[in-house]
Amino acid sequence: MQSTVGIESGNISLGKRKRLAVKGRFTLFLMALPFLVLVLLFSYFPLYGWIYAFYDYRPGIPLAQSNFMGLYWFKGMIASEVQRQEVLRVLRNTAAMSGLSIATSVLPVIFAIFLSEIGKGWFKKTVQIFTTLPNFISWVLVYSFAFMLFSVDNGFVNHLLMSLGFIDRSLHLLATDDHTWLAMTLWNIWKTLGWSAIMYIAAISGIDQELYEAAKVDGAGRFKQMWHVTVPGLMPTYFVLLLLTIANFINNGFEQYYVFQNAINSNHIEVLDLYVYNIGVQNSNFFVCNRHQYVEILNKCRPALCR
Amino acid sequence: MRTGFKISFSWFSVMNTTVFAIFTLACIFPFYYLFINTISNNDLSDKGLIMFVPQGIHFTNYEQVLKIPGLLTSIAVSVSRTVLGTLVTVAASAFLGYLFTKNAMWGRKFWYRFLVVTMYFNAGLIPWYLVMLHLGMTNNFLAYILPQAVSPFFIILVKTFVESTPAALQESAEMDGAGYLVIFYRIVVPLVKPILATITIFSAVTQWNMFTDTLFLITDSKLFTLQFILYRYMNEATSLAALMKSMQGSSGMNIANMVNPTTIRTTVSMFVVAPIVLVYPFFQRYFVKGILIGSVKG
C-alpha cells in the first residue's frame, strides 16, 4: 500500500505511464471478454447443473422451491439391485472400449515406424494420403459404409464370401452382439490410424539422423535401429497422446456408439454417454423426476470417476 | 531413408509394402464402392451385385434424390453452418490467440487457464442440455455456431504461432500509433495465414461432420443438417423409396432405374462425402504442415 503511494507521489511520469498501461490492460481484457463469456456460458454454466442431483427437482418448479435431498438419489442408486447392475454394465462397456483404445494406441506408432522404413517415394505419400482420409468423414458416414459393406442381404462382404464359396448363408455382421467391442475398436482403428500416425511420422522426421549413423557403426541392424533409436525418439509424443486418451477414459465418444447401436447390440455398446442419452433423452421421459435425478447422478459420477 | 541395405532384408520390404497396400485399399475401397453403387443400375446395386465395376452407368440418381422433400434444405443448412461457423470460429480463434500473447492483459494467465481447462472436462449431457434450453439454443441456428466459436485448441495454435513471429513488427506498428485492432488486422493476420488455413480446414470439417448437436437440440425439420438427414435415411429409407416410386410412376421413368432404399442411402452418402473428397487433395498438404508445427511446438 505504502509503496504504491510512494511511487505515485514521488514520480508523476511513472504514475502516468502506469495508468496508461492499466488502461491498456483493461482494453485488452474487454476485447477478450465477449469470447470468455461464451466459454462461461457453454462450458462452465453446465457444471452448475450438477446441483440438481441433490434436489427433488421437477420441471417448472424453480430449484429454490425444490426439496433438498442430499445424497438420497445416490443412495437409491446403490441400494437398488437393478440400477446397480445397469450402472455396472455401462461402466464395464465404457472401461472395455477405453481399455481397448488404450491397448491399440501403440498401433499408430508401429504404423509410422514401418511406413518410414519404406523410405520416401510415391508409395509412402499415397499410403499417407489415403489412410488419412477416413479421419475426415463423420461417424454417420462410417455407419453408412458399414451398412453397405456388411449388411445381410446386399452387403459387399456377404456377397464376396458367398461367391467365393466360404459361406452358404448371409452372416449377420451388424445386428449381432457377439463381437461388439472388437467391431467398435476395429472401426475406430480404420478411421483414426492413418491420422494418428501422421503425428508420429512428423516426430520421426525430427529424429537426428546421426543417431542412426552411430547405431549403424555400432553394428545395429534395421530392427535394432528401430528399437533403440526410433522407438525412444517417439516415446515423448506417445505419452502425451496416451495421457489424452486416459483423460477421456469415461468420456470416450458418443457418436460412434450412437450410430452403431441397435436393438441387438445395445447390451455391449452402451457406454456411459450413450446410456445417459438413451434413458434420459430418447425415452422422452427426460423430465420424469426419478429418471432425471438418476441421469444427473450418472452425470455427476462421471467427473468423479475421471479423477 | 537408410539405403544400401542387404538384399537379404527384401522379404521385409515386400511384407511391409503388402501390409500397407492392403490397409490403404481398405481405407479407400468404401469410397469407391459407394461411388460405383450410386452410378450403377439401381436394381443391381439394390441386390448388392455391383462389387468392383459399375454396370449400367447413369447419373439420374442424383437428380432423383434431390427431389426428396427436405433434402435441399438440409444441404443449405449444412453449407451455411459450415461457412458461417468456420468464419466465426477462425475469426474468434485468431483474435483471442493474438490477445493472449499480450502480457499486459489483465489476468491473462488466469483467463488463459480458464479457457484451456475446458479442453479437459465437460459437465455432461443433461446439464449441458438444460443450459442450452435456458439460453434458447434449441431449434435455433445459432446453436450450430456459438458453442463452437471459442475453441481452446485453435487458440493455442494461433498463440504459439504469433509468439514465433518477430515482436519488432508489432512494436514498430505500435510506435506509429496503431491500436490493438489495427495491429491485429494489418500485421498479425497476414503473418499467421498458414495456421489460419489449417484452422479453417479443421473447423470446416468439424462443422460439416457435426451430427450430435442436431440430434440433441433441433426438432424443427427446417434446421436439420445433411448428416442428420443421412442418419434418418439409414433407418427410414424404405418408406422414402415408396414415396419416390409413387412420384416417379407418373413421369414414366425407366423401371430399372427406379430409386430404392439402397440408392437413397448411397446417393445421400455421396452428397455427404463429396465436399470432403473434393477439397481433400487441396487441404491435405496444409494439415500435414499444421501437424508438423503443432508437434514441433509440443
Describe this protein's structure:
The complex is a heterodimer of chains A (307) and B (298). In chain A, strands 1-2 form a two-stranded antiparallel sheet. By secondary structure, chain A is mainly alpha-helical. In chain A, helix 10 (209-217) packs across helix 11 and helix 14 packs antiparallel against helix 15 (289-306). Chain A has helices spanning 2-10, 12-48, 72-79, 81-103, 107-117, 122-132, 139-150, 156-163, 180-205, 209-217, 222-247, 255-260, 266-269, 272-282, 289-306; strands at 55-56, 67-68. The longest helix of chain A is centred in the N-terminal third of the chain and has 37 residues, at 12-48. The longest helix of chain B has 37 residues, at 261-297. With 298 residues, chain B is mainly alpha-helical. Chain B is built from 14 helices and no strands. Chain B has helices at residues 10-39, 42-46, 60-66, 71-99, 108-116, 125-134, 146-149, 152-163, 167-175, 180-191, 193-209, 212-217, 226-251, 261-297. In chain B, 71% of the residues lie in helices and 0% in strands. In chain B, helix 4 crosses helix 8 (152-163) and helix 9 runs antiparallel to helix 10. At the A-B interface, helix 2, helix 5, helix 6, helix 7 and helix 8 of A face helix 1, helix 4, helix 5, helix 6 and helix 7 of B.
Entry summary:
The complex is a heterodimer of chains A (307) and B (298). With 307 residues, chain A is mainly α.
Structural descriptors:
heterodimer, A: 307 residues, mainly alpha, 15 helices, 1% strand, B: 298 residues, 71% helix
Any chance you could write out the topology, listing elements then pairs?
The complex is a heterodimer of chains A (about 300) and B (about 300).
Chain A: H1 2-10, H2 12-48, E1 55-56, E2 67-68, H3 72-79, H4 81-103, H5 107-117, H6 122-132, H7 139-150, H8 156-163, H9 180-205, H10 209-217, H11 222-247, H12 255-260, H13 266-269, H14 272-282, H15 289-306
Antiparallel strand pairs in A: 1-2
Helix pairs in contact in A: 4-9, 5-9, 6-9, 9-11, 10-11, 14-15
Chain B: H1 10-39, H2 42-46, H3 60-66, H4 71-99, H5 108-116, H6 125-134, H7 146-149, H8 152-163, H9 167-175, H10 180-191, H11 193-209, H12 212-217, H13 226-251, H14 261-297
